[in-house]
Amino acid sequence: MKKASSLSELGFDADGPSFFRHLTLTDGDDGTLPRRRLIKISVIGAGNVGMAIAQTILTQDLADEIVLIDAVADKVRGEMLDLQHAAAFLPRVNIVSGTEVSLTRSSDLVIVTAGARQIPGETRLNLLQRNVSLFRKIVPAAAEASPESVLVIVSNPVDVLTYVAWKLSGFPASRVIGSGTNLDSSRFRFLLAEHLEVSAQDVQAYMVGEHGDSSVALWSSISVGGMPVLAHLQKNHRSAATAKKFDEAALEGIRRAVVGSAYEVIKLKGYTSWAIGYSVASIAWSLLRDQRRIHPVSVLAKGLVRGVPADRELFLSLPARLGRAGVLGVAAELVLTDEEERRLRISAETLWGYCHALGL
Ligand SMILES: NC(=O)C1=CN([C@@H]2O[C@H](COP(=O)(O)OP(=O)(O)OC[C@H]3O[C@@H](n4cnc5c(N)ncnc54)[C@H](O)[C@@H]3O)[C@@H](O)[C@H]2O)C=CC1
Ligand SMILES: CC(=O)C(=O)O
Fold first, then answer.
1. Which residues are annotated as active site (predicted)?
2. What is the rounded CA–CA span in Å between residue 126 and residue 136?
3. Which atom of ligand 2 is the closest one to the Cα of 118?
4. 36-178, which class in CATH?
5. Which numeric CATH code is attached to 182-358?
6. Residue 109, Cα to own-chain centre: how many angstroms?
7. Ligand 2: which residues within 6 Å by Cβ?
8. Ligand 2 atom 4 nearest Cα
């Protein structure tokens, strides 16, 4: 039996399989439909985090094209092929890879995860100098290639690097966003949900400030099924059987567990990846699908933190409304307890110190 020597002998040509065209075309129809604008997402840094983000975005049917960029050519090509081989189980997406940032041209969204990560016990802020040097190469090239894009920064320390990306890109602050405490808030909601034996999706709770050791848990923001937890705690303190569930010491234990989460996972498996993958994919969805959802993400907080001079440029997480144009608004008038306000000020002062010292 003669073997087909190429796909064209099987009926495929550059325009697609002719036998399918034959079945679907009618007179006067050339097969072209008005096309919607295609969505292109680039992920710079195809390590644990970049690949978790790319793979989660793939499952969401959000992008038409995903570009993976990494400094290591074989690694990024291997990651691309591995994802491409899942094509039969996923919506159709063009996946491209390479080492050149220019491949990201005309992206709608550019996600930066390239850079050093923590070794067990190391703080995020310790990575700063190494990752700033890398950002000096990556960010101007990415901004030039996609001047209309939204930049989402994930590399750590994410708040300071989001500030760096804002400075180096020349983009308006509304289009430079750090993944910030979107992840910490999910950890917070998970732990509260476990404690209260409810679904994390029914827990409203925010961590704000630094994505790091000085992050602030907003007790006043916690509600479960519409019930404000702090108000309940104050009203029923130790007076009802359920009050123990909302005990302040237990909540402080949860806050400490949130702050310690990344350290614990890094000690156990060397890095964190799945949760940040979902966190950034949810941010990408809200942005590109213009969802107007509120995410605690790292935004330019100049003048937005009470007690911090209004001229101090720094990025930290506050609840922000995200849509196609980027950050559409920031919850600047948070109702905070005195303690929450004090902690947020410390977080802001800490981050401003690092941003200011860079002299950008
Ligand atoms: N914001 C957050 O919530 C989180 C942030 N991270 C941070 O994300 C970053 C990445 O972490 P992992 O993926 O675990 O590290 P990784 O080491 O697995 O991946 C980093 C990748 O960046 C690549 N890279 C280095 N220089 C590059 C360049 N000039 N251009 C393109 N690619 C380059 C490396 O080749 C490597 O593949 C770290 O800074 C980590 O701390 C990690 C988890 C959560
Ligand atoms: C590594 C890191 O920033 C995190 O998982 O929170």
1. 211 (proton acceptor)
2. 18
3. 1
4. alpha beta
5. 3.90.110.10
6. 11
7. 124, 156, 183, 262, 272, 276
8. 262
